[in-house]
Amino acid sequence: MSNYHIKHLEEYWQVYRKSVRNPENFWEEIAEEHFLWRKKWDKVLSWDFKKPEVKWFEGAQLNITENCIDRHLATRGDKTAILFEPNDPDEGAQHITYNQLHKRVSTMANVLKEQGVAKGDRVCIYLPMIPELAIAVLACARIGAVHSVVFAGFSATALATRINDCDCKIIICSDGSYRGTKTIDLKSIVDEALDQCPGISTSLVVKRTGGTVSMKAGRDKWLAPLLETANSACKATIMDAEDPLFILYTSGSTGKPKGMVHTTAGYMVYSAYSFKNVFQYREEDVYWCTADIGWITGHSYIVYGPLCNGATTLMFEGVPSYPDFSRFWEIVEKHKVTQFYTAPTAIRALAKENLDYVEKHDLSSLKVLGTVGEPINEEAWHWYNDHVGKKNSPIVDTWWQTETGGIMISPIPYSTPTIPTFATLPLPGIQPTLMDENAQEIKGNQVEGRLCIKFPWPSIARTIYGNHDRYRDTYFSAYQDMYFTGDGARRDAVGYYRITGRVDDVIIVSGHNLGTAPIEDAINEHPAVAESAIVGFPHDIKGNALYGYITLKQTGEARNQDNLRKEINQLITDRIGPIAKLDKIQFTVGLPKTRSGKIMRRILRKIASKDTSNLGDTSTLLNPEVVQEIIDQALI
Ligand code: PRX
């Protein structure tokens, strides 16, 4: 029996039971056998969810890039590590071998050092999905700098907030990016952001589009000439197991984004282990995850997990609709992709298009299909299963979070029988449970509650950068000695989990987490706006879309409402990014409030979802009369 690679259901159960009976022993065996350590640990685990504090493999020393690159050189030096598929198919794919990756990462690491980056420094990376993004991430890890990748769809303000929150001293960016037919001028977004970031001394610019950009003397430097003169050998900096590896921001239901801190050894072990099992990865496979490296999915399952296993990982720069809706399937056929991992929102969008787009391509190389980021509806699941997998490739509905670092609940393909919409069973080492409103654990099956995790796993985020109290309050205060996920879930008759969605004010739109508070803050900046409340409502493709209820100041009431709607969405785009734009904006006379002044979002959610039959008791509201008015004027 192998703990590392589970091949059938019985083995899963044996491994799972062992992982729960003796977690330290379980993870120690995996860490010993499958990774390269410069020094072994003194202690496998110490933890206290009250503080909260979690440490894995304390005393161990390593560098994650030696695990992702160096140790493969002897046996896989000429194997493709990164397979880059550009936005424009005519540009041609690039195969970057492990040998080449080693050189490119080392060279970039030396450039960073020359620019004064040292171990522990934070480096912001704001790049499109081009090889330099993965290389920059690994170059930081090579020298012990902490990378903070910001998705290149975020606005200047959002970028500046993230740069300043973790005090980055350098940014790696590009002149622009390609997305389908569009060319986006990323450098001017960076310039605008850097006006608000006094801590940034250097900006290294990758040339991608060749567009005209302004380069600020003393601060902005083209990366290419620096790479040309830098040494291509760079010894890996030896890191302690609990040294931070990266910071990645995720939205909270309130306040500014949370910089989740992931550390080195535990994250490495878990991302590699979960990758191997969830995708049943084998040496000759070509694995493709369509996420952006700006999200956790890209960190764990484009970069670290696959490379730790010596895999070929495909990076795609473009969009599923360019040059047409067959692009995904064309790439699968062209590169004989074996595992394909995407978001339900992409599946829903593609399922709306002509079936020919899928059927004209040979998808017979596929062995495993994955989904992530939001609940997948049955219809989308069946379309994926029937037309992409041809009922031959198991679908892994993987549930996890930025905070968990790796996949937590998922079928193991070819082992766990799948049921549409169920993430099914916890991976080894993961101990989920459901809690009720009275903070009691719900035992037994066929139950529903709030999803918590009872025991630490190696890749749990260790803190929120600069705000440990917020970390404790958000994840460890709702239930004693438990990590609270913020999600609701059902456990069915056989113990399978089905995630029902967020139970807080986070809304998942097209697989992206959006907190309502930052969007409301952006709206409230508009001089005509008095107050606003955002809720989610079901949307065919995005899963959820955003509905804004906005009350205007007297001065705003005379304004043209369409213009106001445009201005409000522009403000949101400027402050956060286009992903947070509202689909519907209803101007209302007031917002329903409790007597203590809290907005009753429950009522607003129901109205936006066309479910006004049972609004509950509204008589206790401060202003019950507004409810009917809002219903009468609802945009549904
Ligand atoms: O609500 C869950 C949903 O996405 C949230 C985490 O979002 P984020 O940190 O951005 O990470 C997304 C990629 C890992 C979760 O709290 N979610 C994620 N996967 C699933 C899901 N909801 C249902 N089913 C899933 N498979």
Give descriptors for this structure.
single chain; 636 residues; alpha/beta; GMP Synthetase, Chain A, domain 3; 2 domains; 21 helices; 24% strand; binds adenosine-5'-monophosphate-propyl ester
Question: How do the strands and helices of this protein lay out in sequence?
Answer:
Elements: H1 9-21, H2 23-34, E1 43-48, E2 53-58, E3 61-62, H3 64-68, H4 73-76, E4 80-85, E5 94-97, H5 98-114, E6 122-126, H6 131-142, E7 146-149, H7 156-165, E8 170-174, E9 177-179, E10 182-184, H8 186-194, E11 202-206, E12 220-222, H9 223-229, E13 239-240, E14 244-250, E15 258-263, H10 264-278, E16 286-289, H11 296-308, E17 312-316, H12 327-335, E18 339-342, H13 344-351, H14 356-359, E19 368-372, H15 378-388, E20 395-398, E21 432-435, E22 441-442, E23 447-453, E24 463-464, H16 468-475, E25 483-491, E26 497-502, E27 506-509, E28 512-515, H17 516-524, E29 529-539, E30 543-552, H18 554-557, H19 561-575, E31 584-587, H20 601-608, H21 625-632
Helix pairs in contact: 1-2, 5-6, 7-8, 10-11, 13-15
